Amino acid sequence: VLSDYSPSSGAMRIVGSQFDELVLDKDHDVFVMFYAAWCGFSKLMQPRLDELARRFAHVSTLRVVRIDGTENDVDHPVTSQLTGWPFLAFFPADAKAKGVALEIQTESTNSDAWHLEAAALLRKHASHPIPDAPVA
Fold first, then answer.
1. Closest CA to 95 of 49, 57, 128, 52
2. What is the pLDDT of residues 96-134, one digit of tens each?
3. pTM here?
4. Residue 75, SS3 per DSSP
5. C-alpha angle 49/57/89, rounded to 5°?
6. What pLDDT shows up at residue 106?
7. Which residues have C-beta within 8 Å of that of residue 83, sequence separation ≥ 6?
8. C-beta separation of 87 from 36 below 8 A
């Protein structure tokens, strides 16, 4: 699965059996959206997450993934903070055991502001640098 994936296509969709390998990998910072396929707000957030993955496709130490939380069991302490869909969490490379629940305050309808706030939060918690994309 990982060998066929390109961040330029958006967030990587994973299942529960891949969580430990792809999210808890100590070489990568990982941003995860736990979603419910039937949830309207989860559907609104998906394009934001895909665009974020594309904006940071140049960062080899960052993964942006999504997992259907209603179809996949994930046994990690951060999921105890899940109170609704979508649920955003960040797993820094050097602090996988705790993970960080993230709340982006900007309305999902304001794409640019949402991405700026998300990027700032990721940079705040990341173990590795998350630079802006090089100017072409």
1. 128
2. 888 999 999 877 678 889 999 999 999 999 999 999 988
3. 0.93
4. coil
5. 40
6. 74
7. none
8. no
